[in-house]
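Sanity check

After download, print the first record. It should look like this:
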Amino acid sequence: MSSFKDRIIRAAKLDVELYEEVEADRSALNQALAVVVLSSLAGSLNIGRLGISGIFIGIVITLTGWIVWAYVTYIIGTRMLPEPRTESSFTELLRTIGFSSSPGLLRVLGIVPFISGPVFFITSIWMLVAMVIAVRQALDYESTKRAVGVCLIGWVFQLVVMYVLFSLLVETAAQSFH
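Expected structure tokens:
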């Protein structure tokens, strides 16, 4: 069994075997959750001017996005676009997708003002590539193109859900100040 730090590094290095490992390790869900929270915190440092409540809301939105994306990916990948060998569970996708957030830990570097934009752009692309690998492995796909398609469909759906959730939270917060 790998250490948590080792798993984060291997996930960021896009190590296919790491994604197979966490897919099979039922005890890795808490580690995946920690990766998602730490990645969210790293990104939140750049918008720290929103205060503790803003950081908390960001973490809640990130966790919700992780769960929604994993669930949508599970439904699309196992029910709508499975391959003959596809066999997976929702928690397997939670674990692998959670670890695909590992590159997001580098967003802490975004506290340096002039590199914030590039850091977010690069880590976003890196996380998307990691997610494709995570989904391909968790769904036992042979086709990377199919994994990309499933990720893109899930991403669009997740964006809509996150937009609605964020809008409701901002509206509720704005009303509480009036």
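If your output differs, re-run the checksum step. Summary of this record's structure: Residues 4-173 form one domain.
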